[in-house]
């Protein structure tokens, strides 16, 4: 696998640590929404093995209502440069679908843009990414966070995701963007059966010839199936992440970095025997 801007080696899977500076995320909302708490959590993520810190200022949990662009940036503007200063060897990703917030984030020290809408919620995102050739994570989502879980339907969920990504990759490549990562979007416009069908067929996304990010950490596909709550979903998260690694995942986006890093180490060791 090629390196991303010569900074990430995808020859072995890596961990992206989640840093939500929101007040209403489904698992860790309101925990790290001060500069001091955010830096403290970033330090924990890095020390446990995260190569990327993914900072999100707007919740995308099912049914969530979007905040204003101004409020989103106000939550990010001090945290991004401080984390860049404190952890200069780490890569910073910003979870936003707004091109204006993406531009400010990059200008203030972020390296990667993580867009849950893959350009669908801001028509200017692709041109911004291409113009600056910024590493770009695009996620598949059917609908918006407000309505995405209202009876999502597919004829063939995996093939439809591949088709959507194929079209978007073509558009981005024609614009000059080539630092791309795909995320099938677990829980974003998918029911329980859809989510596990994707996991079970993840290797089919390899035909797109891009790194694959997996974000299942403590999500409903785990806690609903096991009839528990997100606080109890770490073991289930590790189980699904293991399946994803065996199917070719390159990045694990998680709340719990230590456990994900151990998962990668075990799978790598087993596969190289």
Helices and strands, in order, run as: EHEHHEHEHEHEHEHHEH
Query: How many distinct domains?
Result: 1
Q: How large, in whole angstroms, is the Cα Rg?
A: 17 Å
- End-to-end distance: 21 Å
- Average residue pLDDT: 91
Corresponding CATH superfamily: Dihydropteroate synthase-like
| SSE class | alpha/beta
Structural write-up:
By secondary structure, the chain is α/β, with parallel strands linked by helices. The chain has a single domain, classed as Dihydropteroate synthase-like (TIM Barrel, Alpha-Beta Barrel). The chain has helices spanning 35-47, 69-76, 79-86, 99-107, 125-132, 157-175, 192-200, 220-226, 234-246, 257-271; strands at residues 14-20, 52-56, 91-95, 112-115, 136-139, 180-183, 213-214, 251-254. An eight-stranded parallel beta sheet has the order 6-5-4-3-2-1-8-7. Helix 1 (35-47) links the parallel strand 1 (14-20) and strand 2. The longest helix is centred in the middle third of the chain and has 19 residues, at 157-175. The protein starts with 13 loop residues before the first strand and ends with a helix. The mean pLDDT is 91.
